[in-house]
Hints:
Layout lengths: L1 E10 L10 E5 L7 E6 L5 E6 L6 E6 L6 E4 L5 E6 L5 E9 L2 E8 L6 E8 L4 E3 L7 E7 L2 E8 L3 E10 L9 E2 L5 E5 L7 E6 L9 E4 L6 E6 L5 E8 L2 E8 L4 E8 L5 E3 L5 E10 L9
Antiparallel strand pairs: 1-2, 1-24, 3-4, 4-5, 5-6, 7-8, 8-9, 9-10, 11-12, 12-13, 13-14, 15-16, 16-17, 17-18, 19-20, 20-21, 21-22, 23-24
Amino acid sequence: MNGHPNVYVADLPPAGEYPRFTRVRRLTFTDADEYPHSWTPDSRSVIFESLRNGNFDLFRQEIDESAAHPLAVSSVSKVLAHVSPGGKWILYNQQFKKEHWKIMRIPLEGGAAETVLPEPSVPGEFNCSVLPSGRCVARTIQNDQFVFWDLDPVRGKGRELARSRWGPANVGDWDISPDESLVVIPNHDPHDARVRLVPLDARGGTAERTVTIQGLKNLSGVVWAVDGRGWYVAASVTTGAILFYVDLEGRIVTNLMESMVSIFAVPSPDGRHVAYLDWGASANVWQVRGL
């Protein structure tokens, strides 16, 4: 039997109802590691990276189809894709030498790749709002601070938006609020669970705030719900990871699922679905004649 993290999809209830996963189904069935990171603007297709070709390539697959369509395939790894606001571009990290990555773009339907940010960067250190009028934001580290920058899909890194103190971080563990006024950053403490809310503009307030999540510890990542009313919070446990829905006051609303692997949620722009990774196993069955 072989096992790999594969892509799963679940439906979400209408806004205002108790958050839960329904009609859970496995989307990809390859014997390769696969990780979802974005959706097409129509919420019909998941964009993910797959190791099926020997290095990570980008694919898209409609949630009612069984086959994936290649978006960016080459001899170098491409990971952590996000669709730009408005849906014109897919931005992603591409490895160009060991431990070094650059941010690239391709058209949503696939096509020639172009460089957005050529300087070496940590993979995953950018995020994009799901709203058509939103923004993409890059995160760098300077003088023991996280620095957040406007990231234009064509012109590259723009003006500085905010700064916050540095803390231990995982790749892609932070997110932008749906109205792109705030960044949420989890701590990674084995004793408690807190998230920092960093304003990107005046709509997000004038000062950084901290929200404590009671009853959790060992946070691995946080993702904003599309309606802006809560977060999908992942916490590591001895058996793997648990995904929770937490409201903006830090109250756990529900335990959504448990997994043997690190987990994160990727909600669709319309708020009706969520993609996530989970452990997928495959095996062959053989019939032996004469026994």
